[in-house]
Amino acid sequence: MSGLELERSRKLCEKSKKIQAGGTGSTQRLKVITVDGTTIYMERGKGSKIYDVDGNEYIDYYLDYGPLINGHAHPAIVEAIKKQLEKGTMYGINNELELTLCEKLIKHVPCAEMVGFHSSGSEAVHTAIRLARAYTGKTKIIKFEGHYHGWFDDINISAFSPPRGPEESPEPVLAAPLCQPKSVLENIIVLPWNNEEVLEKTLKKQGKEVAGVIMEPIELGHGILPKEGYMKAVRELTEKYNVLLIFDEVKTMFRVGLGGAQGYLKVTPDLFVCSKAMGGGLPISAYGGKKEVVELISQGKVPAMGTYNANPLSLAGAIANIEVLEKDGGKAYKHMYRVGERLMKGIREIFEELNVKAIVKGLPCQFVTCFTEMSADEINNYRAWSKAMASAPERGEKFRVELLHRGVFNSYPDWHLSTVHSDSDVEKTLKAVEDSLKAI
Length: 440
What we know:
Helices cover 38% and strands 16% of the residues. The chain is of the alpha/beta class. The strands form 4 sheets. It has a 7-stranded mixed β-sheet, with helices on both faces. A 4-stranded mixed β-sheet has the order 3-4-5-15. The chain has a 3-stranded antiparallel β-sheet with strand order 13-14-16. Strand 1 and strand 2 form a beta hairpin. Helix 4 crosses helix 8, helix 5 (196-206) runs parallel beside helix 6 (230-240) and helix 9 (312-353) crosses helix 12 (423-439). The protein starts with 6 loop residues before the first helix and ends with a helix. The mean pLDDT is 96.
């Protein structure tokens, strides 16, 4: 194994512990950028590669947990940002780029008739929930066990936490009970995903109180797609009980395709939110949907504020990013899916050849690997996923670190693909996967 030289990272890590809250810009990052207690500091990225402050090169399958759909420092995106930078970074007043990006979203997103912007996915979710409550006059929100919708108090519930209670009626779990008030649970109903019978039973009983049903329409982080017929049933049930259907497409929009999960699944929600791959590396999010719902903001009935909303730098980068994805009839997507399929197939074959009990599951644009005795078909909700992940967590961590030592950067169990990953990247990655598995 080729060892990592992390001397500079080690010094920066020690400094950060003394002056930076959590020792990182986001506490979620620590589990993927730490080796033997040292946080790796990155210096630059280019294409499918990322480089740390000690000069180590990695093929990047982390991609900032999804936003870098076109890789690092894509020339078209960099050029668009440079041009805008010369004109100013912020106006705090309307700019024409807002309308350009609105038009692109309305063109590609099936449910988008009117849209708006924020800076993060959490903010966009917050606005979508407010819209649902204002439009329906009801207060409760149904969310699903294992689905993450941001870190705000009133929705960061039963996301990454170990499941509690019966599978058909999960116990709501606060993500941070020391700082989240229990009162936020009053308006949240947690249900198991991929179970239309439980949803129907709940709406029949409490539909008059429920403003919206929010979900990740594809659980990319768990490699789970909805069962056949499930999304159609959800759409019919929400319409029947006058409940708005909200798709949290922070991960899926522009990663799965230009139309996101709703385009992929052919099911149209009332509202959507997106972020990550839309911005291509810039801090921006969007919300939108039916005009009759979203125009409550125009009418002044629902606030949607934020100093950095629709800032021109992020807009310019997002527009350029989408134009790369649109080019030549989606040629970039075709390449990404082909390379991703090859990588998935190769990892699966290595597992089989080495007799490693593990699965490869998901879509070629983003998939997961997991050390487990369970089969991929058995895992169709968060309960099953949690059971699979609990099988060998130490092995998963060792696998991540061994890959890092061999120049492959990912976040176990996730693998994110970009439109600039190459066949050569796949060949090197598969060699690293084989050698890492042999090492552990």
